[in-house]
Design a protein that fits this description.
Blueprint lengths: L7 H51 L8 H11 L6 E6 L4 E4 L17 E8 L2 E12 L2 E10 L1 H53 L13 H52 L3 H33 L12 H15 L4 E6 L9 H17 L7 E9 L2 E8 L32 H11 L3 E7 L3 E9 L1
Parallel strand pairs: 6-7
Antiparallel strand pairs: 1-2, 1-5, 3-4, 4-5, 7-8, 8-10, 9-10
Helix pairs in contact: 1-3, 4-5, 5-8, 6-7, 7-8
């Protein structure tokens, strides 16, 4: 059977009230037990004093007092206001026993040179019993003195009603307090719920209110606001991505449509125009292919998770040298300066490391207006990390643009027409670096250099 859900307000009040009842009950019984322990020790001391008094009197029998006088004195001990009963006995006979029904519930005890004090509850009353040796007229006996714990009895009789009234009053006040605190807590949760509904209906600009208390609810609101900021950033970035991707795709498609329409109307008989238009169309198709390929690589980098514990270390030196060899074949005018520290290994997939280097080197060549292009690649250990650095002598990046260059489709110079640049490369590099919990840093100065550093953990 499915359990019926209880409203959170009622659940909080019920649990709070239950906890308060337990606390009050523990406190009340703790006070009673503490007082009982105190009175218990006090009654034990009285019993010991009574025992010593009787022993002292028994030692004076035949010198200062007769046995009959000793018995008369014992009778006077339980004839006053103090409820005390005395019994003296041996294995053979009972020497003295006060007249009381209590002896029916108290057993004879036979001990040897010892004093035994015990507690016994009879008819809901607490009694203290001392059993010890006593010598009377050269004969050995056992004496038992029974004393009711009058102090604790009077305390419970007089104070228990006050305790009960205080407990009930405390429960009532605690219940009211629990309702107030619980309602205040739930009201703040309702405010957060209201904010969520407003976001759902009106958009993601609304945020939860943060009070000056900075309590746990405020911390939840802060986390919620932070989450909504990230969601809003993601929406805005996604919107920019769609807009920029549409723009990048629209340019080659427009060119293709224009040239194909022109060829259909009059370019089929003009061989020169036909050849030129077909070359342009092929270039635009290649451009579309590269855009789509870069977007697929970016999507893969965003969705792929890497378990560094299951990844083997690779030797990056061979990959770097092989890639530079391929670039030199394509363009032998670029100068490469390579500085790789010996015996360095990195936990990274070979394809990912190669993709990073291709992006960095392509950008170094693409954004360079010098007659002599120079690219310096450095790989070395630095403290507890391995640093991969690619530095060029290109056009550089403005300081206020460095934080933006890793955004998708972002271009520093938006007026530049470069069919091979889509602003995706560094975004792909950033996603690859994040997969390995590494860090990427860019340093640049206009018309002088750009340095991209990647820090891998050892």
């Amino acid at each position: 059977m499915k359990k019926k859900k209880v409203p959170i307000l009622r659940e909080i009040i019920t649990k709070s009230f239950f906890v308060i009842i337990i606390i009050l009950a523990i406190y009340t019984f703790g006070q009673i037990i503490t007082f009982w322990i105190f009175t218990d020790e006090y009654e034990k001391d009285l019993l010991k004093d009574r025992y010593r008094e009787i022993v002292s009197l028994s030692n004076n029998i035949s010198t200062e007092i007769s046995e009959e006088g000793f018995r008369d004195h014992l009778k006077t001990l339980n004839s006053g206001e103090v409820d005390e009963e005395i019994r003296i006995y041996s294995k053979d006979k009972v020497y003295y026993q006060s007249k009381s029904d209590i002896w029916e519930d108290i057993n004879y005890r036979y001990i040897d040179n010892d004093i035994k004090i015990e507690t016994k509850i009879l008819d809901f009353d607490i009694y203290m019993i001392i059993s010890a040796d006593i010598k009377i007229s050269d004969s050995n006996y056992i004496i038992q003195v029974v004393r009711e714990n009058d102090i604790f009895k009077e305390f419970t009789e007089n104070s228990l009603p006050i305790f009960i009234i205080t407990l009930v009053l405390g429960l009532i006040l605690s219940g009211v307090g629990a309702i107030y605190v619980s309602k205040s807590f739930v009201d703040r949760l309702k405010k957060l719920t209201k904010t969520m509904n407003e976001i759902k209906e009106n958009g993601i600009d609304k945020r939860a209110e943060i009070s000056e208390a900075n309590d746990e609810i405020d911390k939840v609101n802060i986390v919620f606001n932070s989450m909504m900021d990230e969601v809003q950033d993601a929406f805005e970035e996604q919107s920019r991505f769609v807009s920029d991707a549409s723009h990048e795709l629209k340019t080659p498609l427009t060119a293709l449509q224009g040239h194909l329409s022109m060829l259909k109307r009059w370019g089929k008989n003009d061989k020169v125009r036909l050849e030129k238009s077909l070359d342009i169309c092929l270039n635009e198709v290649e451009r579309l292919k590269k855009i789509v390929n870069d977007m697929l690589i970016l999507s893969k980098a965003e969705n792929e998770n890497i378990d560094l514990n299951e990844l083997d270390k690779i030797n990056p030196k061979d990959i770097i040298n092989e890639l530079i060899y391929e670039y030199r074949i394509l363009n032998d005018k670029v100068k490469y300066i390579v500085n790789i520290e010996d015996n360095i290994k990195i936990k990274v997939k070979a394809d990912d490391l190669k993709q990073l280097l291709i992006i960095f080197i392509d950008n170094s060549i693409k954004y360079n207006n010098k007659e002599s292009i120079e690219i310096k690649i450095t790989l070395l250990k630095e403290e507890e990390q391995i640093k991969l650095e690619v530095k060029d002598n290109g056009i550089g990046i403005p300081k206020d643009e460095i934080n933006n260059v890793m955004k998708r489709f972002y271009k520093v110079d938006k007026s530049r027409v470069n069919n091979n640049s889509f602003g995706i490369g560094l975004s792909i590099a950033n996603r690859i670096v994040n997969k390995y919990k590494a860090k990427i840093k860019i340093d640049s100065e206009l018309n002088r250099y750009t340095t991209i550093s990647v820090y891998f953990n050892l």
